[in-house]
Each structure stands twice: as structure tokens, then as C-alpha cells.
């Protein structure tokens, strides 16, 4: 070896050693982590260049040759974190790379946070990390992958992803948390995965997967898995199988879930419930694949069996699906999906190429039920042979029969089809569940043609109905015939004819080149079908005629509408005619585009090019109290310009308006001119007091509608207007707006009673300055106009608004003096407020001061409220002062949070010298969304307290306590807020627990020594408990000696706070006991609304109720003893009132009611049987009323003694009554009667005919008013009550007064055959007189005959006589005859049986001479007669006074004091009924002039009535003494 070679080897050795040393040094340095920072920076720099993101790594630790720890990896995108990883640790064998193997021993990710967000276009931020290449490189075929990758242990801990998706309808969770552990191996033609554990939790929607584990492999395109298990909270899924990716038909799969609870995935698969057993088995045997799939839930089953043969060649298949008892309500929890599905579906065929294969399908369902629908014997046949398809379907349903045949050819080209559908006996009421849609439709539909695409469609469609009925009315014609040949169509006629609607459509054309369509609609009596459809019925009589013509791009539409009469609820149309003319392009209307923006653009084009002209004339349009009469409306739009007008007479006044709007689709230019005249507010408000006559002129013009572009002016003027009949002196407004700047000029209203004005200017966003002023002037004029005196007011309101929109300041002051409103009087009200709005915040104050208030008899000297507030809270102070014994102050704070609250820091009340205090720093009342929380609220006095603490929830848990302790009720009486004096001490406790849906309520109330006016008791106690849908009540009331009332009740009630109260069901049980022990009703006299009525007696009762609510068992008794009733005004004085009765289930037994009055008594007894106590239905009634010498009334107004015997009995369907009432003696004082009812007339001296007519009119008016306003609907038993009773008036019934005194007798029969009671019979005036003009008119004959009828209009026949001597001293007789109906009487006057005129009759009454004798020739005699008249009147009035005094003091029935003309002679007659049939009379004649002598001054007579027409009269008067038999008949 040469020296040179040695040198070369030496150099090479040294060099190699150096390289090895350097390489070793490098590896050593790498192992120490010296280059870790450089590696970190290089990775970040490279990633930042390649990604649209910023990658940062806090640090890298470890040996890059074997393991690394990377801390805090952050990936940011658009200044937001996309990914953050706390720690990544990896261990690997780098030397295996030399052998082509990537071996990672472990890879652990800990604390991973990912933020994913989707933009409006649906692109995720993760997709935007990699930039889109401008010139993407072409795909180069890759060489086969020869590396082997092995990841022995991969784990993820504390992984969390937050996701914001643009489409909320997709099932993308908002948050995902997971942890996993797995092993992975990958090589050429080999992949193995061993998932040890995977735990996933998601939110919105929520999902919890407790564990997933399996082993899987992919070898030579066969994917297989074993030990697959998913563990959910309530379900476990097991699976194994293999899946050849290139021969899927050879797959084998096994899957079980026993059971699978849909509750585990309820937020991912909403609306599905149940816990079915799931099984799936797919197995391969030789060249055949078998399928067995089942879902089973109790008796509900879905099972599919199938097989596929020759899977390696031309497969043939056969599948059978069987369903049994499937109920949609169970799976969905929706009652409307209740069903019962039983049947099977069979499918067989050959080949998987859908164009070339053959398929046969059959469906047979013997029982198919859904809701109330049933489908019997549903049969479906389907046969497909390459491109031909035949379908046959038959079904028999509860709503009709179906028979369908369809044949199709060339399925995959332009399909030819022939369809025949027959529907028989279709009942829409059974289909819809609406019985009003009862129908019987028989339809036949045929369709023959080819193609389905518009423009290529060729078809002929025919529809024909026969013997069809809809809405209980026959359809006389329902047919259609349509021919379509690509773009050509022909509609000879589509007809629908029924009694309520006629519709016809016809036409032909080419839809793109020429169209000609005609539509006619006529409707009348359409209410019945609308009611059936559940719509508001309409009374409608009208027709519509429309025509559409022209090519598609230039269509012309014309329509005429005529409505003769239409009525919908409160809407009324009469004689309306409208015409519409439009031109538009159908290509714009029917544009097809997937782009929403393009469709919107096409709509804009359609509207821009549309021509529209409308004219409406309506005679009358009304809605409730508002109407339009003689209305004319026109509107025309042509491209971008429009104009129109409106004239109408409305309830608001006479309206005239016209308008123009140009540049509709750019910047509109508009002008509106309107006038509204003769506006009467009384017509609008239906209050005559608000009468007005307002006449307004309104003008508006401008450009633009966007605030930043708009320029507009508004002017309002009033001309000769009035309000409440007072002139409106000034009413004008002028408002200008120009691109944000506004000016309010002279917005003023001036009336005699109030003046208001608004002025200002500014820019809403930048600066505002508005001032409002309202001031009263002369309210008295308003009171006069409104005809009221209860309102007085002097006041002023001033308000200001200033500042920009983001810093507005509002200030207002109100000053009111001498406010009077009904019974409220306030001397002064002063209020001021200020609010400052700044951006989203606000702050301000409110002060109110009210001085000297009087409400009825309650005086309040001062009331003051102060509040300072902002958006967070309001600090309030409320105080009042009525007197030294009634005043108070409350300091509170309101917080405006999500759940606002109020707290009371100080409460001080002096109520009738009792000091109540409360408030602290801890109490509050918080108002939540579904609850009210009361925390430590308490007010108390020295001996009393009110406490509340807890939660009252509307939807949650309840926990509330309220306590009243020793509340003295006499303090409430001291406030004079109640009409009665009350006292007693109240202790009460309310405890509410449970939930809002099922609350528990315990209530205890005790009142010691309760007193209400004269009612005084020892103790009242009540307990009310509610729990588990059961109400228990127990109460008692104690007197000072005994327990007066005791009651217990147990009743099932469904009560919840968040739902309405459910009343007990009819079959619920009930238990109740009520006891009353000798309750003295005298204590309740104070509360009887009729003054003067005094009742006494002891009420006792004991009633027990058991069994069911709809069939209660009631046993008990009700007694009343030692009773009395007094009412001095009517002379009612009933004593010894006793009642004994009993209850035995449905029978009420009234043993007796006894009432004594005078020397007689009244008795009522009987029974009443109920059909059902639940609804109060009466089954039978039997009551009898009897009485003898019963003094019903005994007063100066009315006296009456009666005998009675009445009965009522029968069923509610046919009740009857009968009996008799005899009035033994009675007296009616007309003077007192008329005085009591305010009917005393000042002028009793009107002419008789005038009086009679006015009385008739008054009687008639009174009857009509009573009939129309006060008569109530009689009860059912009264409607059906039939029978009769007699009213006997034998005599001794007197009608008395200062101007009358007469006796009545007669017999009346009352008969009821329907709701009306008819009165028949006759009453006679036996004797008596009537005085007018101081003259006494004797009844010679008087008769009133009742003839029945709804109107009480009897026949009268009165003859009244006045005897006098005329100036010639001749005895004359003036007779007045009143005959006919009382409402239209005929009055005749006779003098000595000769007819005379009314004026002569009046002259004879006053002057004893005719009018012809009152002439100028007799003036001297008139003067002397005037003295006589004065004397007659004076003595007549004196005699009335004497007579009234004697009659009232002596108890006589008749006293008469009479005298002749000039009272030279007179007589006194007194009479008295000894018995009802025996009358005794004494008469004494006297003379005032001693020169006159009386031959027979005394006369005594006695009269006895044997029968109605037979009398015995005995007279003792000197020579005229004797007996007379008198027989008296009256006839017409």
C-alpha cells in the first residue's frame, strides 16, 4: 500500500470518525431537547404559511427521538380560538421508520376545546382553514401504500366542542363532550381497530352514550366487527357481522336490543316513544341470503321475513311484512294518531335493475283503523314487468268504497297511463268526524294520456258524479271534462250545481299564445254548507263573472261582482257592485326558480308591469254600529303610478277623499286630499251626551317613505265645528317633515271648556323640542251641555320632550284644583315627573300630592307619593294623613330585574289608634315568571300581626305560609269602610305545600266573639284542608249558650294552580252534615232590605248527605217555631208561625206550615219529589193551602180578611192547580195608596172624558213598559201549569178616599191554559159615590166585566147620577154613563135622560145651570151664585174633614155628609156591616136655617142579602116604616 493510499484511508477514517462523532453529537443534542424550541417555531411558521389561521405552541418538552410533550396548542381563526389543546403527549419508536413502519406506542390528548361555527352560507370555520388553490395541481396517480402504521394506545380526555350551526332545524348539538381509548393498526389490504372505550355527552339536543366498544377489521374489502356494544342510560345494543364492500348481498349481520328505550334518544328522534324488542338477523347460506327482522312491544308486532336467491347471478327475492295491532297513539303519545293496523305486505320479483326487473306486490289488510276511521278488506295488487306497471286497489271503509285500476307503459320514457278511479257512497262526515258534513258522493274519475311534464303532457280527464248528496241537499250536476295536448287545452265545461251554489268554468287555448277562460259563480242560501264546514254562517245572495284572455305574457283579466245582500255576523252588505280589470304577464307570475331572490325579483317585475283598475259601488256597508252608505271607491294603477277616490256617508260623517301616488317602486310621490264633515260623536259612542258637529279638511303630500328620504306635509283644518253644542273656536294642525327634520306648527284645539296646544321642532335622532299644554277653561259649560252637575275641575297639564333620540328628557307637571266627581271631592292635586332616557338606560322621579279629599263621609287630608327610579330600581315613599287616629307611611323599593321584586324597609300605620309597624332589610316579594316568592313579610301591632313567607308557584313546588294573629275587626269598623259595625278577633293560618299541579292546602280560621251589627256570637271556627284531590271542610258557629251551626263536608275535587278548577264528577262520592240548633232569626232583622219588616222565630235543621253526587242520599229535617212576622205599613201581623218538614232522599215532606193572623189561620202542607237532586229536576209536587178568617192585611192602606182553599199538584210536564179565594171583607184607601206610589194628582177637576182618556193612556203605557222591561222568562213549571181558581167578593169590600166611597161585590175566575193567566167574571159597585168639583155623584149602577186576554182591558158599565135644583128650583138629575173597554171608553152625559154635551154637564156640576144660561144678561144673578158656590166648596171641604175623622175614630164603613144647594139643609148618614151579609144604616137630616122644618129627620134601615139578587130591607122612619123584598137583576 502506497503512502498515498495510506494517507487517503487515514483522511477517510478521520473524516468518518468526525461525521460519526458529529452525528452522535447531533443525536445527543436532540435527545436533550435543545432543538425543541426550533422545532416548535418551525411547525408554527409552516402551519401559518399553509393555513388561514394562526398556530401557537407554548412549549415542547421531551426527546424528539422517543417521546414528546407539547403544551398549550392554540389555533386561531379571525381573531377567535378555533382549537385549544392543553397537552399532547406522544411516545414512538423512530428507528422502526427504517423498516417502513410507523410505530406509535401511545398518543394522549388532554384538555381539548374546539369551537365550530357555521356562517350564513353554511360554510364551517374549519373548512376555511385551507386556502383555495388558484391553480390546483392535476391529480397524479399515487403509488401503492406500503407503509405499516401501528397506534397501540390512543386516548382523548376532557374533549369539549362548542358548535354554533346556521340551520337550527338540523340535528347538530350545541355542545359535545367525549373521552375515548383505542388501538389502531393499518397496512396494505389490512386495517384493524380496537375501540376500548368511548363516552359521549351532547347538549341541545341531549344524548348520553355511557360506553361504546368493539373490535373491527377491514381485510381484502371485507369489513367485519365483533363484540360491538353501545350502552345507553336505559338500553344496550349488541351486534356482530361482516360486510363485503364489493358484494353487499353476501353480508351477514346480527343486531339485538332487548329492549330499546326511545327515551334515550328522545331529543334526536322526537315524538317516538316505547320500549320495543329489536332483532335483526341477516345470514348467508350457500348462494341464498336470509332476512329476519322484528320489532315487538307487548301485543304490537312488526315482522319481516325474506330471502334472496342466486345472489352471485341474477337474484330473485321474496319478502313478507306482517303487522299486528299497531297503535300510533302508543308510539307517539298523540290521541289523534290512535290506530289498529293488522295485515301483511308481500313483495317478490327477479332482478335488481329497476328498469329490467319484474316485481309483484300484494297488500292485504283485513282490519286497518286510524282514529275513528276503519278500512275493511283493503287489497292492493301491483305488477311491474320492465317498463309496464299495473295497479289495482279495492277497499271498503266506513266512509265509502274505493275501486281503482291504473295501467302505465313506458315508465322510464314518456309514460302512457290509463286510470279509472271509482268512489261510492263517500260520507264526508265519517271521513272528517264532522256530522254536519253528511254526504253520499258517487264519483267516477278517468284519466288517459301520456307524460306528466307541463308542455309535454297529453291527457284527457273526465269526472262525473251521480246520485250524490252534500249538506243534505242533492247535487244536481257535478262534472268535468278536460283535454290537454301539450300546450293546447280545452275545457268544454266544469260544472257544479246545487241549491246553494252554481259554478261553471269553461275555456280553451294555448297557454303560452292564447287563453280564453270564463268563470261564473252564483250563490244563494249558502248558510247551511258554511255551518257544516264549521264556518260562520253567511246570508249571501250574489254572483261573480270573470274572464281571462290573451297570451301568457299579456293576460287580460276582467271580473264583475254583484252582491244583492250579504250578512256575516255583524257585517252587512247591500247592493254592492264591483268591477276589476287587470293586465299582467303570466311568465312573471309562474316563473320557476330555485333561487328565492330570483322569485322575489320576478314578483317585483309582475307588480311593476301590472295594470289594475277597480271600481266599487255599495249602497250600504255596516259592521256592528259603524256603517258606510252610498259608497263609491275607484282605484287605478298603471305601471308606477296610481290614483283613486273614496266618497261615503259614514257614522263618522260624510267622507270625501282622493289621492295620487306616483313612482310606486322608487321614491313615491303622493298627494291626499280629504274632507270629513258632520261628524257626530254621539252616533259613534251611542251616547247622546257626546253630540258634536265636526267638519275637518285634511291634506297631505310628500315624497318618499323611508325616514331618511321622506319629505311630507300634513294640514288639518276645522270649519264651523261644535262639540257638546259648544263651538270649537280653533282646531288646526300643520306638521312638516323633511329628511329627519320636523316642525309642528299650531297644533291647537280651542273649546269653551278646554284649550290644548302642541308645538315644537327638531330632528328625532339629533335634537327634539316638543311642548304640550292642556288647560281647562269653563267646565261648567261642559256640565250644562252634558246635563250633569257631578263634575267640577280646574286644572292644567304641561309637558316637554327635549334632547336627541339617544338622550331624551321628558318633563311634565299637573295641577288640579277643586275636582269633584260624583261623591269624590278633592281640593288640590299636584304632580310632577321627569324621565331621562340615555341609550338603553333611563332615570327619573315622580311626585304626587293630593290635599283635602272627601269620599262619601270619609275625609283624607293629605296623600303623598314620591318615587325616584332608574332601569335597575325605584325607591318609593307613600304616606297619607286622615286624622290623628288614621295616618301612615310606607317606604319601599322596587327592583327591575328579570324577576322584579318589591321590598319594604319601613311600614308605619296608625289605624284607629292602633299602631302597626313593619319592614326590614330582608323582606321582599319577588315576581318570577312562574312564581311569587314572599320572604319574611310582616306587619304587626302591639297585640296583632300579619305574616307571610314562602313561595306561591304557578308551575312548580309550593311552600307558602300566611298567618293572621289577633286581628281586631273593630278597628276596621273604625275606618267607616263598611256599612255595618263589626267586631271580633281573627286568627287564621294558611299553609300551602305540594306542587302547583297537586297542591296541599291547610287553612284554619277562628273568630272569637264575632259581631256584625246586632248579630252576636261566641265563636266561629273553620278548617279547610285539601290534599290528594280531596276537600275536607269543618265549620261551626257557637252562641253564648249553645252551638248554633255545625257543618262538615268531604268532597273529591280536582284543583291545581296552573289549570282551571275541575268540578267533581257526577259519580264522585260526597259526605256532608249540616246542623242548625234553634237559630234566632230575630238577629237578622237588621239585614232585611225592606224597612219596617220584623221577623222572629227559631230555625232548626239537621241534614245529612251521603253516596254519589249524581245520586245523593239526603236525610234530615227542617223546623221553624215560635215565629212571627210584622210589617206595620201593610198591617201584616202574623203570629204563631210553625213549620215542620223532613227530607228523605228525593222526597221533601212539608208536614205543615201554620200561620195565625187575627181570628183566623193559614195552613200549607204537601210534598215535593225530585227526579234528580244533582240537577234539581222536579218529579212530582203536591201542595195544599187552606185558610179561614185569615187577616192578611190590617192597615190604613189595606185591610183584608180571606178564606182560601188552593192546591197545586202534578208533574213538571203537566202540573195543575185549582181552588178558591173568598175576600170576606176588605178596604182599600186610595188616598194612601196613591200617596205611597207617588200618584196623587193635583188637578182632580178635569173634565170626565179627558180624565177617562188620560187614565186609559196611562194604564196602557204602564202595562207596555212593564211587559217590555221587567217581565222575566217564567220557569218551565210555570209555563206548563194549568188550572183555575175562583175569587169571591160577596160584599163588604170598600174602596175609599176623600173623593170616593163605594162598595164592590162579585166573582172572578182565573184560568191558566198556557203562560198567560186569564181573568173572567164580573164585579159590581153595590153602593157609593164619587165626588168631583165638590159635587157628589151617586153610583146608580156599576159593573166591571173581565174577559181574559193578555191585556187587562175589561168592559165597564158605570152610571153615576148627580141630583140638584136648577135656578128655577126644579129638581134635576145629571147622569154620566161610562161604557165599553176601559182603554177606549165611551162617555155619555144625560140631563133628565136627555143627552147633553160635556161642557153643559160640567156647567151643571159647577153652577147648576147650562152654559146657555151663563150670559151677560145674568151677571147680577151670577154674583149671588158665586157666593153659593164658595159656600158649597167650603162646607164640602169641611164635611170631608169631619167625615174622615168620624170614620177613622168610630170604625164605621160608611159616613156621608150631604147638603142641598146653598146648604140650607143637610144630612148625615152612617153605615156599618154587622156581618158580611147584614148592613145597618142610620141617617139624620138637619137644617141650617131655623125657618125650615124637617118632617122626618131620622131614618134607620137594615139590609140583609140572602142571595146575589135577593135582598130584604127594613126601614124605620115614622110613617115610612116597613119591610121590602128587593129582587135585582142587571143585564145588557
TrEMBL record:
Pfam families: AsmA, TamB. This is AsmA domain-containing protein. It is found in: Membrane. It comes from the Bacteria. The lineage of its organism: Bacteria, Pseudomonadati, Bacteroidota, Bacteroidia, Marinilabiliales. InterPro entries: AsmA (IPR007844), TamB_C (IPR007452). The chain crosses the membrane at residues 12-35. Residues 5-171 form the AsmA domain. Residues 1157-1530 form the Translocation and assembly module TamB C-terminal domain. It is a single-pass membrane protein. One of its GO terms (cellular component) is plasma membrane. It comes from Labilibaculum filiforme. Keywords: Membrane, Transmembrane, Transmembrane helix. GO terms for biological process: protein secretion. The keyword Membrane applies.
Amino acid at each position: 500500500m502506497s503512502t498515498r493510499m495510506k494517507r487517503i484511508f487515514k483522511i477517510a477514517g478521520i473524516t468518518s470518525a468526525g461525521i460519526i462523532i458529529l452525528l452522535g453529537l447531533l443525536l445527543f443534542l436532540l435527545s436533550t431537547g435543545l432543538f425543541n424550541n426550533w422545532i416548535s417555531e418551525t411547525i408554527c411558521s409552516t402551519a401559518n404559511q399553509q393555513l388561514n389561521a394562526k398556530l401557537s405552541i407554548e412549549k415542547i418538552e421531551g426527546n424528539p427521538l422517543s417521546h414528546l410533550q407539547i403544551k398549550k396548542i392554540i389555533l386561531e381563526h379571525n381573531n377567535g380560538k378555533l382549537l385549544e389543546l392543553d397537552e399532547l403527549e406522544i411516545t414512538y419508536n423512530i428507528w422502526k421508520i427504517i423498516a417502513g413502519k410507523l410505530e406509535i406506542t401511545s398518543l394522549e390528548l388532554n384538555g381539548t376545546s374546539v369551537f365550530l361555527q357555521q356562517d350564513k352560507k353554511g360554510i364551517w370555520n374549519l373548512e376555511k382553514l385551507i386556502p383555495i388553490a388558484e391553480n390546483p395541481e392535476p391529480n397524479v396517480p399515487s403509488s401503492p401504500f406500503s407503509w405499516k402504521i401501528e397506534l397501540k394506545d390512543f386516548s382523548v380526555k376532557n374533549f369539549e366542542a362548542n358548535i354554533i350551526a346556521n340551520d337550527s332545524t338540523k340535528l347538530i348539538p350545541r355542545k359535545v363532550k367525549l373521552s375515548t381509548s383505542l388501538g389502531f393498526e393499518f397496512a396494505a389490504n389490512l386495517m384493524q381497530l380496537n375501540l376500548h372505550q368511548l363516552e359521549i355527552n351532547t347538549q341541545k339536543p341531549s344524548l348520553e352514550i355511557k360506553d361504546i366498544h368493539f373490535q373491527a377489521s377491514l381485510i381484502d374489502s371485507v369489513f367485519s366487527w365483533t363484540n360491538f356494544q353501545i350502552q345507553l342510560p336505559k338500553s344496550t345494543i349488541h351486534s356482530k357481522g361482516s360486510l363485503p364492500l364489493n358484494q353487499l348481498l353476501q353480508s351477514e349481520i346480527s343486531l339485538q336490543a332487548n329492549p330499546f328505550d326511545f327515551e334515550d334518544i328522545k331529543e334526536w328522534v322526537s315524538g317516538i316513544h316505547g320500549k320495543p324488542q329489536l332483532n335483526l338477523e341477516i345470514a348467508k347460506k350457500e348462494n341464498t341470503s336470509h332476512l329476519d327482522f322484528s320489532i315487538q312491544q307487548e301485543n304490537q308486532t312488526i315482522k319481516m321475513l325474506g330471502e334472496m336467491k342466486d345472489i352471485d347471478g341474477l337474484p330473485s327475492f321474496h319478502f313478507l311484512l306482517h303487522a299486528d295491532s299497531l297503535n300510533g297513539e302508543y308510539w307517539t303519545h298523540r290521541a289523534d294518531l290512535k290506530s289498529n293496523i293488522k295485515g301483511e305486505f308481500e313483495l317478490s320479483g327477479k332482478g335488481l335493475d329497476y328498469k329490467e326487473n319484474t316485481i309483484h306486490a300484494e297488500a292485504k289488510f283485513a282490519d286497518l283503523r286510524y282514529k275513528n276511521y276503519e278500512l275493511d278488506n283493503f287489497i292492493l295488487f301491483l305488477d311491474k314487468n320492465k317498463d309496464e306497471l299495473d295497479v289495482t286497489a279495492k277497499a271498503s271503509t266506513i266512509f265509502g268504497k274505493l275501486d281503482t285500476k291504473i295501467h302505465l307503459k313506458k315508465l322510464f320514457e314518456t309514460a302512457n297511463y290509463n286510470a279509472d278511479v271509482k268512489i261510492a257512497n263517500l260520507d264526508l262526515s265519517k271521513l272528517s268526524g264532522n256530522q254536519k258534513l253528511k254526504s253520499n258522493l258517487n264519483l267516477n274519475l278517468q284519466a288517459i294520456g301520456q307524460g306528466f311534464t307541463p308542455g309535454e303532457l297529453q291527457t284527457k280527464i273526465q269526472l262525473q258524479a251521480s246520485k250524490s248528496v252534500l249538506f243534505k241537499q242533492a247535487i244536481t250536476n257535478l262534472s268535468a271534462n278536460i283535454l290537454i295536448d301539450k300546450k293546447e287545452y280545452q275545457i268544454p265545461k266544469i260544472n257544479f250545481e246545487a241549491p246553494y251554489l252554481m259554478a261553471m268554468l269553461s275555456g280553451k287555448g294555448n297557454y303560452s299564445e292564447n287563453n280564453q277562460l270564463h268563470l261564473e259563480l252564483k250563490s244563494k242560501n249558502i248558510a247551511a254548507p258554511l255551518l257544516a264546514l264549521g264556518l260562520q254562517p253567511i246570508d249571501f245572495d250574489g254572483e261573480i263573472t270573470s274572464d281571462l284572455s290573451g297570451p301568457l305574457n299579456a293576460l287580460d283579466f276582467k271580473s264583475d261582482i254583484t252582491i244583492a245582500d250579504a250578512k256575516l255576523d255583524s257585517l252587512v252588505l247591500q247592493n254592492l257592485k264591483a268591477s276589476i280589470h287587470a293586465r299582467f304577464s303570466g311568465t312573471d307570475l309562474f316563473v320557476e326558480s330555485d333561487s328565492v331572490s330570483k322569485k322575489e325579483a320576478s314578483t317585483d317585475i309582475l307588480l311593476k308591469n301590472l295594470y289594475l283598475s277597480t271600481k266599487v259601488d255599495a249602497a250600504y256597508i255596516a259592521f256592528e254600529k259603524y256603517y258606510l252608505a252610498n259608497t263609491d271607491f275607484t282605484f287605478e294603477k298603471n305601471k308606477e303610478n296610481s290614483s283613486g277616490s273614496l266618497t261615503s256617508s259614514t257614522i263618522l260623517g260624510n267622507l270625501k277623499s282622493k289621492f295620487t301616488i306616483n313612482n310606486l317602486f322608487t321614491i313615491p310621490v303622493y298627494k291626499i286630499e280629504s274632507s270629513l264633515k258632520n261628524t257626530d260623536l254621539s252616533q259613534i259612542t251611542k251616547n247622546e251626551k257626546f253630540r258634536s258637529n265636526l267638519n275637518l279638511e285634511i291634506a297631505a303630500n310628500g315624497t318618499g317613505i323611508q325616514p331618511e328620504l321622506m319629505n311630507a306635509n300634513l294640514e288639518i283644518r276645522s270649519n264651523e265645528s261644535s262639540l257638546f253644542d259648544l263651538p270649537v273656536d280653533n282646531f288646526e294642525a300643520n306638521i312638516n317633515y323633511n329628511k329627519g327634520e320636523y316642525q309642528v306648527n299650531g297644533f291647537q284645539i280651542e273649546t269653551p271648556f278646554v284649550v290644548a296646544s302642541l308645538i315644537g321642532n327638531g330632528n328625532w335622532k339629533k335634537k327634539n323640542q316638543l311642548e304640550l299644554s292642556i288647560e281647562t277653561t269653563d267646565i261648567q259649560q261642559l256640565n250644562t251641555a252634558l246635563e250633569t252637575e257631578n263634575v267640577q275641575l280646574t286644572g292644567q297639564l304641561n309637558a316637554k320632550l327635549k334632547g336627541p333620540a339617544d338622550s331624551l328628557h321628558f318633563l311634565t307637571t299637573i295641577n288640579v284644583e277643586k275636582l269633584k266627581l260624583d261623591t269624590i271631592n278633592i281640593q288640590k292635586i299636584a304632580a310632577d315627573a321627569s324621565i331621562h332616557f340615555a341609550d338603553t338606560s333611563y332615570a327619573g322621579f315622580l311626585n304626587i300630592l293630593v290635599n283635602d279629599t272627601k269620599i262619601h263621609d270619609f275625609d283624607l287630608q293629605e296623600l303623598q307619593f314620591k318615587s325616584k327610579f332608574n332601569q335597575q330600581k325605584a325607591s318609593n315613599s307613600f304616606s297619607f294623613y286622615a286624622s290623628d287616629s288614621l295616618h301612615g307611611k310606607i317606604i319601599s323599593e322596587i327592583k327591575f330585574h328579570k324577576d322584579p321584586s318589591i321590598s319594604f324597609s319601613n311600614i308605619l300605620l296608625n289605624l284607629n289608634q292602633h299602631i302597626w309597624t313593619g319592614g326590614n332589610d330582608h323582606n321582599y316579594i319577588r315576581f318570577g315568571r312562574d312564581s311569587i316568592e314572599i320572604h319574611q313579610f310582616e306587619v304587626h301591632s302591639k297585640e296583632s300581626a300579619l305574616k307571610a313567607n314562602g313561595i306561591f308557584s304557578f308551575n312548580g313546588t309550593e311552600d307558602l305560609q300566611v298567618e293572621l294573629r289577633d286581628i281586631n275587626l273593630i278597628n276596621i269598623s273604625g275606618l267607616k269602610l263598611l256599612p255595618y259595625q263589626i267586631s271580633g278577633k281573627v286568627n287564621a293560618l294558611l299553609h300551602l305545600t305540594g306542587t302547583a299541579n297537586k297542591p296541599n292546602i291547610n287553612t284554619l280560621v277562628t273568630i272569637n266573639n264575632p259581631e256584625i251589627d246586632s248579630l252576636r256570637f261566641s265563636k266561629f271556627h273553620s278548617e279547610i284542608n285539601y290534599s290528594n284531590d280531596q276537600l275536607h271542610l269543618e265549620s261551626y258557629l257557637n252562641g253564648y249558650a249553645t252551638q248554633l251551626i255545625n257543618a262538615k263536608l268531604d268532597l273529591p275535587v280536582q284543583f291545581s294552580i296552573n289549570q282551571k278548577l275541575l268540578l267533581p264528577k257526577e259519580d264522585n262520592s260526597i259526605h256532608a252534615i249540616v246542623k242548625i240548633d234553634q237559630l234566632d232569626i230575630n238577629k237578622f232583622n237588621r239585614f232585611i232590605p225592606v224597612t219596617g219588616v220584623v221577623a222572629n222565630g227559631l230555625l232548626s235543621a239537621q241534614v245529612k248527605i251521603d253516596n254519589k253526587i249524581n245520586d245523593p242520599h239526603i236525610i234530615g229535617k227542617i223546623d221553624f217555631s215560635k215565629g212571627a212576622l210584622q210589617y206595620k205599613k201593610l198591617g201584616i201581623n202574623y203570629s204563631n208561625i210553625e213549620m215542620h218538614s223532613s227530607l228523605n232522599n228525593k222526597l221533601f215532606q212539608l208536614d205543615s206550615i201554620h200561620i195565625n193572623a187575627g181570628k183566623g189561620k193559614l195552613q200549607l202542607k204537601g210534598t215535593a219529589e225530585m227526579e234528580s237532586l244533582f240537577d234539581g229536576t222536579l218529579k212530582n209536587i203536591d201542595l195544599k193551602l187552606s185558610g179561614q178568617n185569615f187577616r192578611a192585611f190590617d192597615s190604613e192602606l189595606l185591610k183584608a180578611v180571606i178564606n182560601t182553599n188552593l192546591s197545586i199538584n202534578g208533574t213538571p210536564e203537566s202540573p195543575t192547580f185549582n181552588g178558591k179565594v173568598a175576600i170576606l171583607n176588605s178596604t182599600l184607601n186610595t188616598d194612601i195608596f196613591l200617596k205611597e206610589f207617588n200618584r196623587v194628582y193635583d188637578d182632580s177637576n178635569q173634565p170626565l172624558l179627558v180624565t177617562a182618556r188620560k187614565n186609559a193612556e196611562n194604564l196602557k203605557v204602564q202595562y207596555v213598559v212593564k211587559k217590555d222591561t221587567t217581565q222575566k222568562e217564567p220557569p218551565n213549571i210555570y209555563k206548563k201549569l194549568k188550572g183555575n181558581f175562583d175569587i169571591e167578593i160577596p160584599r163588604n169590600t170598600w174602596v175609599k178616599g176623600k173623593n170616593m166611597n163605594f162598595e164592590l161585590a162579585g166573582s172572578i175566575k182565573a184560568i191558566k191554559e198556557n203562560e198567560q193567566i186569564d181573568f173572567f167574571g164580573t164585579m159590581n159597585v153595590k153602593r157609593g159615590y164619587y165626588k168631583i168639583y165638590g159635587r157628589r155623584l151617586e153610583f146608580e149602577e156599576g159593573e166591571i166585566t173581565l174577559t181574559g186576554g193578555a191585556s187587562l182591558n175589561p168592559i165597564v158599565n158605570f152610571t153615576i147620577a148627580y141630583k140638584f135644583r136648577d135656578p128655577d128650583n126644579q129638581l134635576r138629575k145629571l147622569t154620566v154613563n161610562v161604557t165599553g173597554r176601559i182603554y177606549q171608553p165611551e162617555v155619555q152625559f144625560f140631563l133628565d135622560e136627555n143627552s147633553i154635551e160635556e161642557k153643559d154637564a160640567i156647567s151643571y156640576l159647577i153652577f147648576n145651570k147650562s152654559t146657555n144660561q151663563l150670559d151677560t144678561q145674568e151677571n147680577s144673578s151670577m154674583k149671588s151664585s158665586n157666593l153659593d158656590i164658595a159656600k158649597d166648596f167650603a162646607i164640602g171641604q169641611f164635611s170631608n174633614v169631619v167625615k174622615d175623622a168620624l170614620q177613622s175614630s168610630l170604625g164605621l164603613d160608611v159616613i156621608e155628609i150631604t147638603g142641598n144647594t146653598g146648604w140650607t139643609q143637610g144630612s148625615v148618614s152612617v153605615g156599618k156591616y154587622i156581618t158580611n151579609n147584614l148592613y145597618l144604616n142610620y141617617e139624620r137630616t138637619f137644617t141650617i136655617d131655623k125657618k125650615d122644618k124637617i118632617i122626618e129627620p131620622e131614618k134607620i134601615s137594615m139590609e140583609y142579602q140572602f142571595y146575589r139578587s135577593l135582598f130584604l130591607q127594613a126601614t124605620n122612619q115614622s110613617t115610612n116604616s116597613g119591610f121590602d123584598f128587593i129582587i135585582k137583576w142587571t143585564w145588557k
